[in-house]
Design brief:
46% of the residues lie in helices and 16% in strands. The chain is of the alpha/beta class and 391 residues long. The protein has two domains: 217 residues, Rossmann fold (3-Layer(aba) Sandwich); 155 residues, Rossmann fold (3-Layer(aba) Sandwich), CATH 3.40.50. Helix 10 links the parallel strand 9 and strand 10.
Length: 391
């Protein structure tokens, strides 16, 4: 089967959740399908990055979108239309011609779109199509409104409403829709959203596996540090939770690991808090740390960071919001914090109670190993795609 995969970013390096998901899905789908990959990109893609996908794709096309043109278009869309800016950012008439030509040339059996950002390019084509919402973008935007400065709130509210409308109406243009979790599925506003299929993420267990090394850090938090929910969590962890921990355990250290840390994140650096920025192998930092803490207060989707940490056999502490997507059993496979005191108490208990530490770490590993593999999750997607061809 020939599958045309259309993405809003090139799926390498794997520093963002959408890239990680796309990369591993392409890798798995390529085992029994021909993959024609087309990616939009607002930055230059290196030959080294492209080579990472060559083994899995018969054709790779990167369509460059230039930021100056994008910004002019966004201003026009914001002021003179009701189009979602997520969609407007990635839509380009020249790119449309290129995509039309690619589809005419390759004659794919199926089109697979990741995120609503790219759906305008193919929504009306008479070819079987699947849209991966990935997560509920509109709800994620809405959760950012209250925490945003007042001068950003109007913009976020406007984009939230536009996204909700677009998420609703794009639904019927696709034969199938998928999403990362049941929690996100329920946040897509459409009378037929029960037909959306949950396709979770997995873990690369060859990379994320436990190693016995000397621990350098007590706590670790990871993620793309330019992503607002991660910024919010890092600040919350450093400014709200850590002072409570330090009252009784003043030497406890924290490392914040992830690409593109903003000024807010960089300001958290201290003698007790390290901020690394981009690292080539994030698994090394999981290995060097004792406990994973992800106090996610906003955002949507399934947190890859939790899957990775559990695979590395680190005991994990997170929020109800994050665990609703993960669906691990509280106090058995994961610990849940509702406020800074909860998080601080869980951290101290794990550091002081060896049995509790071992129990949460081992149960978390067993849970993720059973429920989250790229082979298993992508097989759900492949069966869905093939069901249209087999009709």
């Amino acid at each position: 089967m020939k599958i045309f995969v259309l993405l809003s970013r090139f799926p390498f390096p794997l520093e963002k959740g959408d890239k990680l998901r796309a990369f591993h899905q392409i890798k798995e789908l390529s085992k029994s399908n021909e993959i024609v990959l087309c990616c939009l990109s607002d930055e230059k893609v290196s030959k080294e990055d492209t080579k990472q996908l060559e083994a899995y794709c018969s054709s790779i096309t990167v369509i460059r979108l230039h930021k100056l043109a994008i910004y002019f278009k966004l201003i026009g869309s914001l002021l003179f239309s009701d189009q979602s800016l997520q969609v407007a950012y990635f839509y380009n008439k020249k790119a449309q011609k290129t995509i039309n030509n690619l589809i005419a040339k390759h004659q794919p059996d199926h089109i697979y779109c990741q995120l609503i950002r790219v759906t305008e390019y193919v929504r009306k084509l008479p070819i079987p199509k699947t849209l991966d919402y990935m997560d509920a973008l509109a709800r994620g935007m809405e959760r950012r409104v209250e925490e945003a400065p007042f001068y950003k709130q109007w913009f976020l509210k406007t984009e939230t409403n536009r996204l909700k409308t677009y998420e609703h109406f794009i639904f019927d243009d696709f034969d199938f829709t998928t999403i990362i979790s049941e929690q996100d599925k329920n946040l897509i506003v459409n009378i037929k959203n029960d037909t959306t299929v949950v396709v979770p993420n997995g873990v690369d267990y060859s990379t994320y596996q436990r190693k016995e090394v000397t621990k350098e850090y007590d706590l670790i938090f990871t993620g793309n540090m330019a992503y607002p929910p991660n910024i919010d969590s890092a600040v919350y962890l450093a400014n709200k939770i850590m002072p409570l921990v330090w009252k009784t355990h003043p030497t406890i250290s924290l490392v914040i690991v992830g690409a593109k840390p903003t000024s807010k994140v960089l300001k958290l650096k201290s003698t007790k808090i390290a901020v690394t920025g981009w690292v080539d192998d994030i698994s090394e930092y999981y290995t060097k740390s004792k406990i994973f803490v992800a106090p996610m207060q906003i955002g949507t989707g399934l947190q890859n960071k939790l899957l990775e940490a559990m695979a590395m056999q680190l005991p994990c502490i997170t929020s109800n919001l994050a665990n609703n997507a993960l669906n691990a059993e509280p106090n058995k496979s994961v610990l849940i914090g509702d406020n800074p005191n909860d998080y601080a108490n869980h951290i101290v208990q794990l550091l002081e109670n060896t049995d509790l530490y071992k129990t949460i770490a081992e149960n978390g590993y067993s849970f993720v190993k059973k429920n989250y593999t790229w082979e298993g999750s992508t097989s759900i997607l492949e069966k869905l795609i093939r069901s249209k061809t087999d009709e």
